[in-house]
C-alpha cells in the first residue's frame, strides 16, 4: 500500500535561519507531489507541485523553494525564514484524478 | 477554471443533532468532487468522493454527500454527529477525465458541543 511520510512533525526556528522539510512516498512510482501551507485560521494554499524529478511549479511567489531530487522525495526549503513563514505545512501525492490526494501528517513550523 | 465555495466558515452543533456542510462549485466541464476531513494538527483524510453514477455518495464515519448538478452543489451531511466529528472539513473539485490539480474550498470548521 502507498504511504507518505513527512517530517519533522514540529519545528521552531528563529527568523533568518534556513529550513528543510522532507516528504517521501512509498508504494508508488512517478507520483505528482504537492506542498501546501495552512496559516492559522485559513484554508489550504498550494505552494508547489511537481510532476517528475527536477520539475517544480510554483503557485505563489514567496520566500520558499522546492526540489525533487528523487522520484518519491519532495523537499521544501528556505534560505532565510521570515515570521510570515509560520504555519502548518502539508505534503500530498496523487496519481490520478479519481483518487484525489493522499496527505502526509503535516509539519507545524513556528518562526520566532 | 474551477472554483469551490464553502458557504460556512464555522458550524456549531450539539451532539446527536444532524448537520449539513455546504459546498458549491463552479466549472464549465464535468468534475470529480471530494470531501476531506482534518483533525487538529493532522493531515487531511478522504471522507468520500463523487466520480459518476449515483448522486448520493456514502463515506466513512457515517457521512454522506449529494451531488446536485443543476445547483452545482455537493453538500455533506450526517444525521447524528458525535463529539469526535469536531474537525475542519474541506470540499475539493477537479475536472474529470484525466489528471488535474484539486481545487480546495476554504474549509468549514465543525464544532460539536455536548
Any descriptors?
heterodimer, A: 112 residues, mainly beta, seven-stranded mixed beta sheet, four-stranded antiparallel beta sheet, B: 114 residues, six-stranded mixed beta sheet, 54% strand, globular
Q: Which sequence of SSEs, written as H and E, runs from N to C of chain B?
A: EEEEEEEEEEEE
* Pair with the biggest interface: A-B, 24 and 26 residues
Count up the helices of chain B. Answer: 0
**Helical content band of chain B:** under 10%
- Write down the overall mean pLDDT of chain A: 91
- Separation of termini of chain A? 38 Å
Strand-pairing-aware structural class of chain A? mainly beta
Rg from alpha-carbon coordinates of chain A: 13 Å
Percent helix of chain A: under 10%
List segments of chain A where confidence is low: pLDDT < 50 over at least 5 consecutive residues. Answer: none
The global form of chain A is globular
Amino acid at each position: 500500500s502507498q504511504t507518505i511520510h513527512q517530517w519533522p512533525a514540529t519545528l521552531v526556528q528563529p527568523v533568518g535561519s534556513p529550513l528543510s522539510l522532507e516528504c517521501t512516498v512509498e508504494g508508488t512510482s512517478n507520483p505528482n507531489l504537492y506542498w501546501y501551507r495552512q496559516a492559522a485560521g485559513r484554508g489550504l494554499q498550494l505552494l508547489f507541485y511537481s510532476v517528475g524529478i527536477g520539475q517544480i511549479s510554483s503557485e505563489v511567489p514567496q520566500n520558499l523553494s522546492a526540489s525533487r531530487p528523487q522520484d518519491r522525495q519532495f523537499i521544501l526549503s528556505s534560505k532565510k525564514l521570515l515570521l510570515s513563514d509560520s504555519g502548518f505545512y502539508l505534503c500530498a501525492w496523487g496519481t490520478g484524478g479519481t483518487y484525489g490526494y493522499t496527505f502526509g501528517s503535516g509539519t507545524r513550523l513556528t518562526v520566532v | 477554471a474551477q472554483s469551490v465555495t464553502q458557504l460556512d466558515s464555522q458550524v456549531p452543533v450539539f451532539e446527536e443533532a444532524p448537520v449539513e456542510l455546504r459546498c458549491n462549485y463552479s466549472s464549465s466541464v464535468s468534475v470529480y468532487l471530494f470531501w476531506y476531513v482534518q483533525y487538529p494538527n493532522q493531515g487531511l483524510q478522504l471522507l468520500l468522493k463523487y466520480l459518476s453514477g449515483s448522486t448520493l455518495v456514502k463515506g466513512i464515519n457515517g457521512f454522506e454527500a449529494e451531488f446536485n448538478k443543476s445547483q452545482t452543489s455537493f453538500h455533506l451531511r450526517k444525521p447524528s454527529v458525535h463529539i469526535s466529528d469536531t474537525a475542519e472539513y474541506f470540499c475539493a473539485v477537479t475536472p474529470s477525465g484525466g489528471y488535474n490539480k484539486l481545487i480546495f474550498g476554504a474549509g468549514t470548521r465543525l464544532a460539536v458541543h455536548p
